[in-house]
Amino acid sequence: MDDILLAREMIRSAQRLVIFTGAGVSADSGVPTFRGASGDTFWGKYDPMTLASPQGFRRDPKLVYDWYNWRRSQLAVLTPNAGHVAIGALQERGATLITQNVDGLHERIAPKNAVTLQLHGTLAEDRCSGCDYREAVDFTALPPLRGCPECGAKLRPAVVWFGEMLDPALWKVAEHACKEADAMLVVGTSGQVYPAAGLVQLAAQRGRVIVFNLEDSALDEHAAISLKGRASEILPLLVS
């Protein structure tokens, strides 16, 4: 049987489906990926330790904040693609979505009460660098670098930077979902970022894993089925 038909049947028959996504699912919406064979990636052009680390923010907070606002201004004019829509349809059926993406495109079309675990945070919020204060950010009316109204420390994007831990409570929920999953659909991630990539290994111990990317990845060794192609073209076929 064709791999797409096999993958579709695997997804259809899953009682506890987990979807794990990375930057590749948003590429067809115009969002650059962070890694890959192409040099046209964020970390192919910019130094991650300058723009995505606590040290970089302490050294030059305005540079870092302005860079994230530039990314937000790009996202303001982008829209979810057919791959996001297909994943939203699976969430409608009860699938749990675990995403490394911070662009918010999944969330724009997710059905009400859908489970979306944002492992690496979100650009749609700022959080205080000194306390627990958070506030929403409107991509069409971007705020400047500013102080926290509660403690005065600088506000920063609510994303996880290099050298920072993932939210322990969120990680516990993600781990539990993967341990209980009988199938996992992996879309658009290189498998190079840990501990997030370890969730695929965890799911493979109990269930079947479908890995879907443009090119070969480190996650293929855990896959029952490995598919290659554009998320916006192939994902709709998997859920139709």
Structure explained in plain terms:
The protein is α/β, with parallel strands linked by helices. Helices cover 35% and strands 18% of the residues. It has ten helices and nine strands. The chain has helices at 3-13, 42-45, 48-51, 54-59, 61-75, 82-92, 105-109, 168-180, 198-204, 231-239; strands spanning 17-21, 96-99, 116-118, 121-128, 134-136, 155-159, 183-187, 208-213, 225-228. A six-stranded parallel sheet has the order 3-2-1-7-8-9, with helices on both faces. Strands 5-4-6 form a three-stranded antiparallel sheet, covered by helices on one side. Strand 4 (121-128) and strand 5 form a beta hairpin. Helix 1 crosses helix 10 (231-239) and helix 6 (82-92) packs parallel to helix 10. The chain is elongated and about 55 Å long.
Structural class computed from helices and strand pairing: alpha/beta
Number of strands: 9
Please indicate the percent range of residues in DSSP E strands (runs of 2 or more). 15-25%
Main β-sheet: number of strands, strand sense, barrel status? 6 strands, parallel
What is the overall pLDDT average? 92
Task: Strand order, main sheet: write it out.
Answer: 3-2-1-7-8-9
Q: What would you report as the Rg, rounded to the nearest angstrom?
A: 18 Å
Which H/E pattern describes the elements?
HEHHHHHEHEEEEHEHEEH
By DSSP (H or I, 4+ residues per run), the number of helices equals: 10
Which segments are poorly predicted (pLDDT under 50) over 5 or more consecutive residues? none
| C-alpha end-to-end distance | 17 Å
From the spread of the alpha carbons, the general shape counts as elongated
| Helix percentage | 25-40%
